[in-house]
Amino acid sequence: MNSNQLIVIEELRSNFLNEVNNSNSISTLTTILLNDSLYRNLLDDIDYSGEDDYSSFNDVEMFYLYIHKQRDLNEKKNRSASTKKEYLRDLLLFYKQLMENAHHFELAIEQITGFQLFKHLNHRHIRKYQEWLKDAPLGKSGKPYSVATLNRKTVIIKSFLAFLFNTKYISIPLHEKVLSSSVRSNDRPNKEISSSEVIAILDYFRNNSIVYGILAVLATTGIRVAELCKARVSDIDYFEGDYWLTVIGKGNEERQVLIHSNVLQAIINFRKRRRLDFKVGPGDESPLFTSAKGKAYNYKYLSNFLIRKINAAELDIIRLRKNPITPHTFRHGFALISEEQGVDIRKIQESLHHKDIRTTMIYLNRRQARKNNAAHAWKNSNVIQNI
User: Fold this and answer.
1) 69: number of CA atoms within 13 Å, CB side?
2) Percentage, residues of the chain above pLDDT 70
3) How far, in Å, CA of 193 to CA of 351, rounded?
């Protein structure tokens, strides 16, 4: 990291406590801390001491060390840039909330110096923070966070606090008092979508080559929208009569998904609409799907764009649904339709790249419960006919 960037970090360290009401402070600090060029310098400082001594560091540097911590010599097995960004934003928001609402947690913020807030926390502060976070109107439409959002934030915060304790930056095992926020099946929004619903939605957008092209790929491959945004033209190849798209999933692990011939034509039509060529081969490293400006889509932008388009469609299946359809709904749909076609659950798990088959089962459990309901045996019986 160059001297100008170091100066910026020093300024952010000294001013952050005074900028907690400035929404740009988290965005700015996130951008700076994502640069990993300072990481080895900090490791050198630790090594020169002859022992794992983190006492001279401050909270910002501990954020930095935690985010960029390497677990493997293979870079693909370490945190991706997008994961680092999500973790940083959640951790900096956690930090900002502690400072902005210190009185709720009985935290004497005015006594903290040297940008070492975490060294002043105890179990009571963590308990009161979680009590506050559970009910605070911080979610969508001014409502509290969903159980799934609370669970994600809790996992990240607990992991970070464990890192602080294991490195002896703090002396109290704060992570041991962080309550879990596990997601039960009833807490999960219903993301079921049937084959007839998928066909109806795709048919509705058939003349919109942009939306149709993207949805055709999501529905027939089960890939995540973030994986679609990373795909390049050169990631499509031809093997033994089929087209395959190589995508990079969670943990930077690669897998291949089958691109049916009519879906490939939908991709070609998308690119024609964008005035882009398409040729299978290793030469074209440009994004497979691009915005109107010719840039790779940001996955959050694309997700929100698709949600708006789909849920504004004049279809009864949209109007009658309790939960909106999202790009991730089509991932669930891929699992459900695959099961309809007689595909074994292990093959569905592998195709979706789920590490744990229980995740795949979550996609299928609601339908399985309906199929296995004892009331089916009543159909056409004397009992039901006489009720």
Assistant:
1) 14
2) 89
3) 18
Q: From the centroid of its chain, how far is CA 210?
A: 24
User: Which domains, from first to last, does the chain contain?
Assistant: 3-185 (no CATH), 195-371 (1.10.443.10)
> Average pLDDT of 238-258?
90
Q: Looking at residue 11, what is its pLDDT?
A: 52
139 in Cβ contact with 149 (< 8 Å): yes
Q: State both tokens at 16.
A: 């952050």
Lowest mean pLDDT among 114-118, 130-134, 158-162, 334-338: 114-118
CA contacts within 13 A on the Cβ side of 140: 4
User: Which ranges constitute the DSSP H helices of 37-179?
Assistant: 39-48, 59-68, 81-100, 123-135, 147-166
Q: Considering only CA atoms, which of 181, 166, 2 is closest in space to residue 69?
A: 166
Q: What is the pLDDT of residue 5?
A: 47
Q: How far apart are CA 54 and CA 59, in angstroms?
A: 10
Task: Report yes or no: 284 and 233 within 8 Å, Cβ to Cβ.
Answer: yes
Evaluate whether 206 touches 216 at the Cβ level (below 8 Å): no
SS3 287: strand
Q: Are 198 and 330 in contact (CB under 8 A)?
A: yes
E strand intervals along the chain: 236-239, 242-248, 254-259
CA distances in angstroms from 138 to 144, 186, 259, listed in the order given:
5, 22, 40
